[in-house]
Records
---
Amino acid sequence: MITRIRPLDDDALDEAARLIRGGSLVAFPTETVYGLGADALNDEAVKSIFAAKNRAADNPLIVHICRYEQTFIYATERPFYRELALRFWPGPLTMILPAANALIAPSVRCGLATIAFRSPSAAGARALIERSGRPIAAPSANLSGRPSPTTAAHVYEDMNGRVPLILDGGPCAVGIESTVLDLTGEIPVILRPGIVTAEQLRAVTGEVRIHPAALAQLAAGEKAASPGMKYKHYAPRARVTVVSGRRRVETLQSLYDQTANAVLLVSAATAARLRGKIELCGNGDAASAAHELFSALRRCDELGCEQIFAEGYDASDEGLGVMNRLLRAAAFDHIDTDQL
Ligand code: AMP
Ligand code: MG
């Protein structure tokens, strides 16, 4: 299969919408990361997403819609759903609702009784949903296990030959995937932290729990609330070690000095205090780190380094989403200098 990249314009959107309606895949930009989309009502099309990504068959997909009322066709409403949709949609929040029927293709939810929905804010994503006239199932447009793509070039790196069309809408604004919030229980639970924070959600719902798997490895044999929790994620080819806490700068320097073929992945503020091979990731705050994290991990790979020492963040607010991605990229290899 030949993979074409087209700038996201009117004509390219028309072609993309035709492809989606015809059961093909299209990679497209959202405000979080690039998605690999298919008609969520067409099971064969959805299955081809799993094949193109090498995605585990039990890891369900998020269904993208434009208006919150569209979920009522497929799912049952839950407390706070409307309030959250009115406050955070369109935007980087995914909400999990009980499935009401089998209209959404079975491969989307992989046998679960629930469906994850999101209404993206990126204009190109919205236009693709509108023009195709379908809910669009889309995971991130990377090979499973690799850092999520935040540019069309990243998608091409992983998906060349696996998808007919990549819509290029430039770099993604947010840079990490949506916050995933499970609304099916009594208290809403964050299954995957993102740029919409627990505090922001609590302002609407009162209570919100954060699933322990946000920052820790599942225990052997523990059942994953969200199947994505149990897979290796976001990993560059090099080994990654996360170093956080008040003495991170000295620790990063000494680890770097003792390791052959290493690179430091740090903010611009921290870089000014370090010597060595450096890849920049953000200017010191967690939101800017989120924006650059996945492309910075890919750049580290291009350097051909074997070990990345990455600066960690306080695991609160937006930092929680960044630490969730970093710790998974590091397979939970983490030095917290406040605990030494
Ligand atoms: P991705 O689109 O690649 O960012 O992955 C979507 C994430 O949402 C994965 O971690 C999935 O496991 C999770 N997810 C999707 N649908 C559900 C669902 N019905 N219940 C729990 N988690 C879900
Ligand atoms: Mg993904």
---
Amino acid sequence: MMASLARTILEDHLERGELVPGQEIALRVDQTLAQDATGTMACMQFELFGVDRVQVETAVVYVDHNILQIDFKNPDDHRFLQAMAGRYGLWFSRPGNGICHYVHCERFAMPGKTLVGADSHTTQSGSCGMIAIGAGGLDVAVCMAGHPFELPCPKIVGVFLENELQRPWIQAKDVILELLRRRTVRGGRGAIFEFTGPGLSTLSYTERGTIANMIAELGATGAVFPADDETRSWLAEQGREEDFTALETGDTGDFDEEEHIDLAALVPLVAKPSSPGNVVPVDELVGTELTQVCIGSSVNSSYEDLAVCGAVLRGHELSEKLVSATATPGSRQILDQITRSGTYVDLLMAGVRMLEPACGPCVGMGQAPPSGSASLRTFNRNFPGRSGTADDQVYLCSPSVAAASMLTGVISDPRELPAPEIPPRPEARPEVVQRHILEPVPADEAASIQIPRGPNIKPPPAQKALPDELKMRVLIVAPDDISTGDLSPDGATVMAYRSNVPAIAEFTFQHRDKEFPKRAHEWGGGFIVAGDNYGQGSSREHAALAPAQLGVRAVIAKGFARIHRRNLIAQGIVPLLFQDQADYDKAELGQTWTISRLHSIAEGEDELETEIEGVGTITLTHDLLPREREIVVAGGLIRYLKEQQPAPA
Ligand code: MIC
């Protein structure tokens, strides 16, 4: 019996704890990544630890999110990050080089290693036989400063793949959409999905990347693929064959749970508005009118993804029903390849707008669709308003469904098309990317690098001690599945304030409750009450930093998403749970709640009496792990670490 690869890598990196699902563990981290929208805050928090140089083998900062330069804010951030990278020994990937997940897979991912990244889709590097986990900026900063990464030990779900995809119309996207269809956006919480079985060898490295990227949509901790012949030839093409080590994934008997997927039986799937878990077969949606179709961007922007679309569109034009269509390659290498294969011209001539390799429309960085209309996208998320249009109707699909729909202007089933002639992938030229990833500056030169801070770059707000008793008002009663995009919205306007917490706080809950920040100011802070899966989606710690800035001291929910739960803890907001979920219904806007004996959490207390004015007493509880108890009582991770390790004299 083969042992689970995920468990083997976890074991190799275990610094503290036992590999028992749910128990607190700490892992040695080999690599970190951050991008510009999360990286400025991560870097400023790293500075607080007074460490002279990053303490991991490889740390990279990518500029790929806030790439619109319509005023000084984003370019100031880029200049800051370039200088920070130079000063502290990170690699710096310039804007235009590509999306962090793609470039990391091309240039840095390595079998058997661990990667912690300030972006939820860091999981994409799991395609290379490594454990790759998304985290908040502060957790990544702590790893860069040499601390291990703390997390609840995940369970391992073995996903057995049988047979082969019916290409070109059934694609890797349909595998991950199938998992989302079965399990929904909450169905991967606390788990690493390990892919195995006879169908695996038929999936290319970038197809595996598609699945690993979107494992984040299940709320999972990560995805792991083996390092096999496919991985070896990918690394060889990247001029990195020496980074290869063969690693097999596990077999029946070594997993906590199993899933079985017959690749040959899959049909094209589509996630309907406005959740990646809202998945149905394309048949149910055929004929839905569209105004926009977008391919590429954060996921499905590999050579093969774009080439199939180019081949379908060759010699045709976009339907007149559409207002626009876009294509975004994942990296400068892919842009180079589609240029040489003719795909670029195929797309261009068909009328597709060719965008630069960056996250772009996936995070509402341009290309918002017309009001109230349907946009079909090969992206990973369709939370309400994420596209930049408040009443958007975003559908998520594979590249072949997108290509078929570009021809017709309505959602279409690609299986009705004639077989396309897909141009083979031209040999990769990794230097087109590598040249623009600036190397870490040697330590002796680095010490003298000055770090320019533009006027929008403000220091991270100081964390505050947690009082033993909190008597505050309920600022909002929110439903299930609140995303971090509800808390700290996507899009060019808001994301330009990622380096300025007081400013970005004014956009908290903008799409759901415009008055929230004003109310929080007037009431001197308060509590958020929410349903299950609170904080699903991205890793952005701004979804915790901004409420903290507005005086939120606790979130009381039916359940939390993994990364956001940890971000709350790290930023000094207590994540509490209802002992009796029916008590959620007692919550009302404006009520005063008194939560007592909060400091007893650090002594092992699990139940907190809470008085709701005019209603009575309820019991709140929590699922904090031993160190997390101490972190919340200290008022956040920075305060906790400083208390543990007094600053050098
Ligand atoms: C996303 O896809 O939601 C993002 C934008 O990449 C985020 C990171 C961010 O908000 O900066 C993520 O996935 O963590």
---
Amino acid sequence: MSLLERIRVTQSFLESKGIQSPEFGLILGSGLGELAEEIENAVVVDYADIPNWGQSTVVGHAGRLVFGDLSGRKVLALQGRFHFYEGNKMETVTFPVRVMKALGCQGVIVTNAAGGIGYGPGTLMAISDHINMTGQNPLIGDNLETFGPRFPDMSDAYSKAYRQVAHRIAKEQGIDLGEGVYIGVTGPTYETPAEIRAFKTMGADAVGMSTVPEVIVAAHSGMKVLGISAITNFAAGFQSELNHEEVVEVTQQIKGNFKTFIKAVLKDL
Ligand code: HPA
């Protein structure tokens, strides 16, 4: 089956489960999936039951899709995403974004845990732009003309309009929201201090192992994106050591603010 056919099969399957006309996709990163628990009139589908879908393997990722009402909007939330470092093909990593578009989502909120280059642990950062350091591009291969052009423009991949809403809400809620460039790597190693020094010179403010592939695919089909990084640690060389436990722990501390913030933003997008 072609990619397009597989997208259609998955779309029909989800529609048959009652997932009709979502307005926004929500991709919830490490430890941030709890937001999906607040979705009302929820239709919940385990990843294992969805045709053509990948499987989550990372601790802190639930591996289920939740559709329903959040802040008066119809949302389709992914509790757990697919990473390239898990051995997934880029097509698997970005397949959910294709399906979100096929189902009718106009916008997507993409969240992640990230290492801070310009920002410290506990901060939320609105992503203004990205640098793709993965050495991959999910659009390599036949172009899906029904989704978008062969050579997509990435100039406004992270919607300025969405960011303005995010900053206004942050101000109202007294949340310290930074803004900056996310540099996406494959992982699974954390970076070396030399890499982080290089990334800093390149203009990066945060580093992480996700988001870039999904945003490329969203931009391809004209979906608007709000990207939010939860900074969980100082990037390599700026603190003594890095580990996943710390990332999960700091996410636990941020998630209260994060949930209130995202819900309020969603209302005004
Ligand atoms: N580097 C890459 N990915 C991350 C980091 C980091 O320091 N922290 C959380 N995700």
